[in-house]
Amino acid sequence: MRIKNQAELERWLAQGKATPILPTELRSTAKTKPVDPSLQRRIFGLDTALRCTGWGMIDVRGNQLKAVDCGVIKNSPKAPFSDCLRCLSISVRELIELYRPNIAVIEGGFYCRNVKTAMVLGSARGAVIAALAEAGIPIHEYAPRRVKQAVCGFGNASKQQVALLVAQFLAIQVDKMPLDSSDALALALCHAQNLTVAQGHGISPEI
Amino acid sequence: MRIKNQAELERWLAQGKATPILPTELRSTAKTKPVDPSLQRRIFGLDTALRCTGWGMIDVRGNQLKAVDCGVIKNSPKAPFSDCLRCLSISVRELIELYRPNIAVIEGGFYCRNVKTAMVLGSARGAVIAALAEAGIPIHEYAPRRVKQAVCGFGNASKQQVALLVAQFLAIQVDKMPLDSSDALALALCHAQNLTVAQGHGISPEI
Fold first, then answer.
1. For labelling, which of A98, B149, B152, B155 has a CA lying 20 to 30 Å from the CA of A199?
2. Do A81 and B123 touch (CB under 8 A)?
3. Nearest-CA distance from B70 to chain A in Å?
4. Which residues contact A113 (CB under 8 A, 6 or more apart)?
5. Contact assignment for B139 to A206 by CB distance below 8 Å
6. Which residue ranges of chain B lie beneath pLDDT 50?
7. Who contacts A140 (Cβ-Cβ below 8 Å, separation ≥6)?
8. Would you call A29 helix, strand, or coil by DSSP?
9. Which residues does A180 contact at the CB level (< 8 Å), separation at least 6?
10. How far is B35 from B21, CA to CA, in rounded Å?
């Protein structure tokens, strides 16, 4: 089943059921080898920004998905730029040390109109990617539209809709999940779906 | 003496003399306290890019400037994006460990037409700034135009002209200095001039 619009999503949510959706178009773009579904993997999703970076950790074994933890790395609006990057880098390293993830997933391929914003966002991504790469963790990148399509079934879903479906998939209460971490969990879920349901097809290449 | 154009610069270079130029307009924009000129400081200049980051280290005591070392952090054009950032971050940390600089200076406030380029350049800057900030080194940022004005006397100087003047200031042979590191040394020189000749006036605030 594929959800095509908001009305369908609402009907689907009303049924209270959530099973991973396999984006059919991913099959045709598959370039990677099928992945052994019996392996347990811990996926570290990161929705990177300078002031507020959401993160989520999920375990995947076969078709089973389990939320491990999620949260937000916050920087004060008054904190100097270099302090924010330092804090981001240290926090990511601490999370790696604590949860030992096998794979990291970040947002990529999004559109940014302003060059200055792109530079700031790029800096936050740079600090995070460097910390992940130094720990030897393979990093995958998915466009926001593709993540929404994987989690909600259509690419125009709102932040709230993504949060609702992420909570249903992972059987966690939506009000107990920081809103900024739902996008990070959605990134991890998107990769998990490609690993499990799509058996490794459609996984974005490592960056 | 202020050099206003290329012809003047060439005459000046022909004389074989190089003394620090004090950009007079900086005096009026001075916001920081005067700096004790007797202190010795090691300035770490970085001209950041993903594939080729130039760096230069200079020592400053009073009006005396001395080149310590310079070089380039190179990444293969085929190296994955995350590998480049990992290499940048590790190399910067190694240089800090080796030379123990007190101050870092990077390029900033430049114009970048393309959003994608801004994002990539931002990532390289993010990895470098995070490494510097983690080592507790204060970071200053100067626009390319201001650096050229401080080193060459006018803001439109070419890369070769900057390299020539940097070599003259620091009494090093221009052919022994990697071209990509001359901009990094120029950044360090620009900050050194504001520290010494301008006695701390005109120093850009820490980022």
1. A98
2. no
3. 23
4. B115
5. no
6. 1-3, 16-34
7. A103, A104, A105, A106, A191, A203, A204, A205, A206, A207
8. coil
9. A47, A52, A53, A54, A72
10. 18
pLDDT tens-digit map of A20-47 = 333 333 233 333 444 555 678 899 999 9
Question: Best residue in A50, A88, A89, A116 to probe B by mutation, most B CBs within 10 Å?
Answer: A89
Distance from CA of B80 to the nearest CA of A (A): 6
Does the active-site annotation cover B180?
A: yes
Q: What is the architecture of the domain spanning B35-195?
A: 2-Layer Sandwich (3.30)
Domain positions in chain A are 38-195
Q: Which residue of B has its CA nearest to A80?
A: B207
- Structure-model confidence comparison of residues A51 and B3, the more confident one: A51
Beta bridge partners of A53: A73
Could you tell me the pTM of the whole model?
A: 0.81
Nearest chain B Cα to A125, which residue? Answer: B123
Query: Do the Cβ atoms of A139 and B85 come within 8 Å?
Result: no
Q: Give the torsion through C-alpha atoms of B129, B131, B136, B138, to 10 deg.
A: -20
CATH architecture of A38-195: 2-Layer Sandwich (3.30)
pLDDT at A49 over 90: yes
A→B contacts (Cβ < 8 Å), by residue, are 80-83, 85-86, 88-90, 111-116, 118-134, 139, 206-207
* CB pair distance less than 8 Å for B119 and A122: yes
Cα separation, A80 vs B73, in Å, equals 26
User: Helix, strand or coil for residue A57?
Assistant: strand
Predicted ipTM?
0.80
Euclidean distance between CA atoms A27 and A194, whole angstroms: 10
CA-to-CA dists, residue A73 to A56, A189, B17, B122, angstroms: 11, 20, 53, 20
Among A93, A83, A87, CA closest to A73: A87
Closest Cα of chain B to A119: distance in Å? 4
**Confidence (pLDDT) at A113:** 79
Is B141 annotated in the active site? no
